[in-house]
Amino acid sequence: MSVNEISSWIVGIIVLIGAILSLVSAVGLVRLPDIYTRSHAATKAATLSVMLVLLGTFLFFAVIEDLVSARILLGIVFVFITAPVGGHLISRAAYHSGVSLWDRSTQDQLHAKKKKHGSS
Amino acid sequence: MSFQLLINLVMAVIWMFMNDAWTFASFISGYAIGLVIVYFLRAFFPHRFYFLGIMATIKLLFIFLRELVLSTVEVVGQILRPKLNITPGIFAMDIELEKNWEITVLSCLITLTPGTLVVDVSPDNKTLYIHAMDLPDVEKAKKDIKNTFEKAIQEVSRT
After folding, report:
1. What is the pTM of this model?
2. How far lies A4's CA from each of A8, A60, A62, A64, in Å?
3. Could you say which residues from 33 to 92 on chain A have a Cβ atom under 8 Å away from some Cβ of chain B?
4. What is the per-residue pLDDT across B92-132, written as a single tens digit (0 to 9) for each?
5. Considering Cα of A16, then A48, then A37, then B87, what sign does the dihedral take?
6. 3-class secondary structure, A98
7. How far is C-alpha B86 from the geometric centre of its chain's CA atoms?
8. ipTM higher than 0.90?
């Protein structure tokens, strides 16, 4: 097999894994019970899936088309930095506007703390 | 750290001046020689040899990537399980880090760790409130992992 053939296999596998992960995190958004567990699915699996698809695109253009695109690398870095912050902000906003946890949750140590300081 | 880096860059430029060779290869060789010189003069700087800080940063980056892959595998496993068997909860964790950027990096790391998500940081920067996806079997192990994270971040910011 030539180099191009091998690398196109690798690119295909990477993009496929990214797409499957994206599907799984969408399933997680439907299946999981409350907003906090949903944002687990949305921050982790979705971040990695977008990064993998972008990485596959980068490798495809770099190896097969001979075109190194720095913008895709920058996109990977930006997604990597901003996704956890987005998940944190959404769940924090949800908590402070009073969205309750799932009823099978075992403990809530932030609740006691918030009671003590009054609702902010 | 940035001061030593600046000195090293100036040494590389001086090397290029002395050789009158304005190429990238000449810059690299000048930088390598400057690195050796800074290493032998490290006793005169107030902080530690700056390359150690760079190595610690790279190590932190690899921890980030490894945790992202591990946490994705774990979340996918929880989602695709036929019967949902999780016990979520929010627990508090005390941290020793003080600077704001350290706390930010630690919360990003925790958010990308298997099964945990930072919900709130206390106003005095002493406590993180973390939502865990599966609490009973995780909390103890999580504290260990976070101790390694805190160690890695302290290693970067040590002077």
Report:
1. 0.77
2. 6, 10, 11, 6
3. 33-34, 36-37, 39-41, 43-45, 47-48, 80-81, 84-85, 87-88, 91-92
4. 777 777 788 888 888 888 888 777 888 888 888 788 888 88
5. positive
6. coil
7. 30
8. no
